[in-house]
Amino acid sequence: MSHANETDEVGHAKSTDRGHDQEPSPIEPAVAPSSAVLGVHEMTRTFGEVLAVDTLSLGIEAGELRAVIGPNGAGKTTLFNCIMGALNPTEGSVYLNGSEITGDAEEQRPHKGMARSFQSNQLFADQTVLENIRLVVQTARQGAFSMDLFRSHYSVGRERAIEIADDVGLTADLDAEAKNLPHGEQRRLGIAMALATDPDVLLLDEPTSGMSPAATAETASLIKEVRDDRGLTVVLIEHDMDVVLSISDRITVLNRGEVIATDSPDAIQGNQAVQDAYLGGMREEI
Ligand SMILES: Nc1ncnc2c1ncn2[C@@H]1O[C@H](COP(=O)(O)OP(=O)(O)OP(=O)(O)O)[C@@H](O)[C@H]1O
C-alpha cells in the first residue's frame, strides 16, 4: 500500500512510498517535533546494503516512559546511536526540546539535556562511587573535563552527588571503588552518572541485561521512580518483557528498521503485527 498520505508520529506527512503491503501502524496522536521532548523525523540509517533504520519517526512526550522493543537486528541500537549522536543518520532529523540536534556532536548532547546511561567501561574504575558521580556533576557544571576535577574541589558537586547516589540506592556504596561493585550496582552507577548531567531525556540501553531476577525487578522500580520523582522523559531499549510491560507508558515495536506499532502495554500484547514479528525470529515471547 502507499504511505504517501500518511501522517507520522511527529506530525509530518510521510513522503516515501516503498510499496509495503503492511497496514499503517496504530500510532498515537501526532506529536509535532516542537512539542515533543524528543522527536525523530523520517530517520534512515544504512550500513552498506543493510537498511538498519528505515524512514522512522517518533515523538516522545515530556515525562513519558517509552520502551523500544523488537526482534534481534530490528534497529533499536542503531536508532539509539543516531539519537545520541554516536552515529549520524543517513537521512532524517532528531529534535530535542523542539530544536534540531541532528548534526550536533555526541559530547554536546548532555549539555542540551540528553543523557545515556554510562556503560561499565565508561566508569572511572579506580575511583569511588561518590567520585564517579561527583566528577560528572562537576564536568556538567564546568562544561568540560579538566584535571582540576581530581584535585582539591571536593565540595564542588559533592552534596549533589550524594543526593543522586541516594536516589539510585547507592548510599551504602559511596566509598566503594567502581571496579569492585557487583554488575547490578555498576549499572546503577551508570544511571546515576547520567542523572548527574541533569537531563531532560534519559536513554537506557538494556538496563537490566545480565541481571538476576531480583536485581532486574529493583532496576525496573528504580527507573520508574526516577521518572516519577524527576518528571524525566525516559526511553529504554529492553529485552525483558516483564520490565517493559510493567513500567512503560507506551511501547514502540520495531521490525526491520520500521515502527510497526506504538501503543499502551495492553494494546501491544494484543497486537497481531507485533505477535507476527516476534514469532518471525524473536528469542522472547510477548
Ligand atoms: N556497524 C554496523 N555495520 C554493519 N551492519 C550493522 C552495524 N550495526 C548494525 N548493523 C546491522 O543493522 C541491523 C540493525 O542492528 P541493530 O544492532 O541496530 O539492531 P538491534 O535491534 O539493536 O538488535 P539486537 O536486539 O540484536 O541488539 C542489523 O542487521 C545489524 O546487523
UniProtKB/TrEMBL annotation:
- Entry's Gene Ontology molecular function annotations: ATP binding
**Which portions of the chain have biased composition (kind: Basic and acidic residues)?**
1-23
User: What InterPro entries does this protein's entry cite?
Assistant: AAA+_ATPase, ABC_AA/LPS_Transport, ABC_transporter-like_ATP-bd, BCA_ABC_TP_C, P-loop_NTPase
In this chain the ABC transporter domain maps to 38-281
Keywords, in A-Z order: Amino-acid transport, ATP-binding, Nucleotide-binding, Transport
Chain ranges passing through the membrane:
none
Establish whether keyword Nucleotide-binding is in the entry. yes
Supply the Pfam families for this chain.
ABC_tran, BCA_ABC_TP_C
Gene Ontology biological process? amino acid transport
State the residue spans of region: Disordered.
1-33
The source's superkingdom equals Archaea
As for family, the record states: Belongs to the ABC transporter superfamily.
Function noted in UniProt? Probable component of a branched-chain amino-acid transport system.
Protein's recorded name: Probable branched-chain amino acid transport ATP-binding protein LivG
What is the native source organism of this protein? Halovenus rubra
